[in-house]
Design brief:
Strand order of the largest sheet: 13-12-11-14-15-16-17-18
Pfam families: 3HCDH, 3HCDH_N, ECH_1
CATH architecture of the largest domain: Alpha-Beta Complex
Family: Belongs to the 3-hydroxyacyl-CoA dehydrogenase family.
CATH superfamily of the largest domain: 2-enoyl-CoA Hydratase, Chain A, domain 1
Shape: globular
Catalytic activity: a (3S)-3-hydroxyacyl-CoA + NAD(+) = a 3-oxoacyl-CoA + NADH + H(+)
CATH class of the largest domain: Alpha Beta
Keywords: Fatty acid metabolism, Lipid degradation, Lipid metabolism, Lyase, Multifunctional enzyme, NAD, Oxidoreductase
GO molecular function: enoyl-CoA hydratase activity; long-chain (3S)-3-hydroxyacyl-CoA dehydrogenase (NAD+) activity; NAD+ binding
CATH topology of the largest domain: 2-enoyl-CoA Hydratase, Chain A, domain 1
Radius of gyration: 28 Å
Strand content: 5-15%
Oligomer: single chain
Distance between the termini: 49 Å
Number of helices: 27
Number of strands: 20
């Protein structure tokens, strides 16, 4: 009996079928690494050498999961290995031997099968799965490509166009939608039996060993490339490499495709882009791991406020099978909230019939029903006096042990806690708009928040599909503070005479999804003044930044009719809500002359304005660890994903280089004490010790 892969033999009719079961004893799921592949190779060698065995089945011993991709923590070791090429060649040799062999292999998928685990299935000759199982090759999301033969093996099961979509999108596929890929969908209690029966039926039949090639396949690969270039998603480096590798197999054959896959995989794995993606994946996974469990679960959620944020929170709750009750003082607001709910649910609604999730929604203009909720998120206007009044009324409507959270982007949680009875059950939960799509939630405990409260809020965030990051109760917390600094830099550049188009184009060129001026238009200039400047920049940044000058510039622009998209005229002009072009009057209203400037300098200022504020958040204890800062910066406020977060980026560039670049830009770009120390002593931000969560010692 081997440690990871065990074998039993079954008799089906006149056939002897070996059943190999993968079960990592040290992990919650089967991850693919040297240990599993080595054990599997030994077992398959024994099966193929056993003349009494007619076919074999590959199954999983993990409940509800067949397997995942490669162990993320092991990939850097593989990247650094001098034997990486030989290792991958050995994996491909095993896969090809299975595919080209005369001994049929059927895979029994009892749940999710992604990445390397799914590639194992693709090396076989048929796949049987349970209802609700999902399969996929998500490597492109990690700036990688499948390295276990998947770029070539997938085409043995599905047409080329479908294979290209799966490979370049990385999206999971439900087995019910995987005709051709999945031979049978059977109940879990009969899965292995069905796989054994199918394996026996394949003995002596013509087995598909290599993918077929049709006339026009090479052209299809190139048309897919062109379509991606013109798409919103764009053509990433990983997707482009995947297309190159598939094309090699189409044009030069199966073995050439595998050779191209090895080269492409290692090239991507050793790239800065992939290191950034793998870092973000690991950091996000660690945040999720630390937010498991804690206190009584939330089954019924109350939401106060039927505006876009409140409707988004409640819609997200019912979409994930939580009961939600929404309270607003105006019936028309509740009507708009219901319309918002229907829009959210329509994206995943059943093809026929009514959506049962609608029945999980209730709304009211009173406090009726709030005595039955487990948790409440207050999501009313961002004005302290309104929130204070609502929180006082709310406390009279819910039980004493109900979790209470305020959705706010900047208002100090400690000040709001004064309006809450039993303030130990109160904290901030800062969601991002649109809630149903944005993956981050900031958790902000105050000095009196019980540890169990933070744990319950983290579990609620996970239940809502969010990544919860705990931050300190400082002005703007982390994300609003950093965002305020970035928006302010956009205004500072305008005051220096840089035009609107150059500023926002430079932001996109360095990887931001939008520029600071377009972002300001979307929020409206008035809101930016109220929130980003008054609530955050003035109390936090005035000692190192001309915040008064930024405020004056924004007020001058508003007085000149520059207000934002909703008003039809901002840094851009709009017709019927659609952006027409840059507003040519902006610099004139400010009274500054346009200057010619290198766009790379503009991009550098925007990148370092954002990053230096993140580094200061770590230095003053607003975040617990640089990894948390990377997750929050990328998932919440748009730091370039390809750079892996501001802390990872600094480690990649090197502290000494970062400090020199900051110093060249002046005191507004002070990088902070840790980077200055690392610039002198060496080391990485990633290796700094993790601090306890804010107020973690309070109970």
């Amino acid at each position: 009996m081997s440690e990871i892969v065990s074998r039993t033999d079954r008799v089906e009719g006149q056939r002897r079928i070996a059943v190999l079961v993968m079960d990592r004893p040290d992990k919650s799921m089967n991850v693919v690494d040297e240990a599993l592949l080595g054990d599997l190779r030994r077992q398959i060698d024994a099966v193929l050498a056993d003349e009494a065995v007619d076919a074999f089945v590959l199954a999983s011993g993990k409940d509800g999961s067949f397997g995942a991709g490669a162990d993320i923590g092991w990939l850097p070791e593989l990247a650094a290995s001098d034997n990486a090429e030989d290792f991958l060649a050995g994996v491909h040799e095993l896969m090809a031997r299975i595919a080209r062999g005369t001994t049929p292999m059927v895979t029994a998928i009892n749940g999710s099968a992604f990445g390397g685990a799914f590639e194992l299935a693709l090396a076989g000759h048929a796949i049987v799965a349970v209802p609700g199982a999902q399969v996929g090759l998500p490597e492109v999301g990690l700036s990688l490509l499948p390295g276990g033969g998947g770029t070539q093996m997938l085409r043995r099961f599905v047409p080329l166009d479908r294979a290209l979509d799966m490979l370049t999108s990385g999206k999971p596929v439900a087995v019910e939608d995987a005709a051709g890929l999945i031979a049978r969908v059977v109940p879990a209690d009969g899965l292995v039996d069905a796989a054994v029966e199918l394996a026996a039926s394949l003995v002596g039949t013509d087995l598909v060993d290599e993918p077929s090639v049709e006339e026009g396949d090479a052209a299809l690969v190139e048309s897919t490339r062109e379509a991606l270039v013109g798409s919103r998603r764009g053509l990433s480096t990983a997707a482009a490499t995947i297309l190159d590798v598939v094309a090699a197999g189409v044009v030069d054959g199966f073995d050439a495709g595998l050779a191209a896959e090895r080269a492409g995989f290692l090239s991507l794995l050793r790239s800065a882009e992939s290191r950034a993606a793998l870092h973000l994946f690991s950091a996000q996974d660690d945040v999720k791991r630390r937010s498991r469990g804690g206190g009584a679960p939330v089954g019924r959620l109350g939401v106060v406020g039927g505006g876009q944020m409140g409707a988004g929170i409640a819609s997200t709750a019912v979409s994930r099978d939580l009961d939600a009750i929404v309270r607003d003082v105006a019936e028309d607001s509740l009507g708009r909230a219901r319309a918002y709910r229907d829009k959210v649910l329509s994206r995943t609604a059943p093809a026929k019939g009514t959506d049962p999730r609608v029945d999980r929604w209730a709304d009211t203009t009173t406090w009726e029903g709030f005595d039955q909720v487990d948790a409440v998120v207050e999501a009313v206007f961002e004005l302290p006096e309104i929130k204070d009044e609502v929180l006082r009324d709310l406390c009279g409507a819910v039980a004493d042990d109900t979790l209470i959270a305020s959705n706010t982007s900047a208002i100090p949680i400690a000040s709001l806690a004064a309006s809450v009875t039993h303030p130990e059950r109160f904290l901030g939960m800062h969601f991002f708009s649109p809630v149903e799509r944005m993956p981050l939630v900031e958790l902000i405990p105050h000095a009196g928040t019980a540890v169990e409260t933070t744990q319950r809020a983290a579990a609620l965030g996970r239940r809502l599909g969010k990544v919860p990051v705990v931050v300190g109760d400082a002005p703007g917390f982390m994300t609003s503070r950093v965002y305020a600094r970035w928006l302010a830099e956009g205004i500072r550049l305008l005051r220096d005479g840089v035009d609107v188009t150059t500023i926002d184009s430079a932001a996109r060129a360095v990887g931001f999804p939008v520029g600071p001026l377009l972002a300001t238009d979307e929020a409206t200039l008035n809101l930016v003044v109220q929130a980003s400047i008054t609530q955050v920049a003035e109390p936090v940044m005035a000692d190192r930044l001309d915040v008064a000058g930024v405020r004056k510039a924004l007020e001058t622009l508003m007085a000149g009719g520059v207000e934002g998209r909703r008003q039809g005229r901002g840094f851009y002009t709009y017709e019927d809500g659609q952006r027409v072009g840059a507003n040519p009057e902006v610099l004139g209203i400010l009274g500054v002359s346009p200057v010619e400037v290198d766009p790379t300098v503009v991009g550098e200022r925007l990148l370092l304005a954002f990053a230096t504020e993140c580094w200061r958040c770590d230095a003053d204890g607003t975040i617990c660890h640089p990894d948390d800062g990377d997750v929050a910066a990328v998932l919440g406020i748009g730091f370039p994903r390809l750079l892996g977060g501001p802390f990872h980026w600094a480690d990649e560039v090197g502290a000494a280089e970062i400090v020199a670049r900051c110093d060249a830009l002046g005191e507004a770009f002070e990088p902070g004490p840790e980077l200055r120390r690392l610039a002198t002593e060496g080391g990485r931000l990633a290796d700094l010790p993790r601090r306890p969560a804010p107020f973690a010692d309070r109970g």
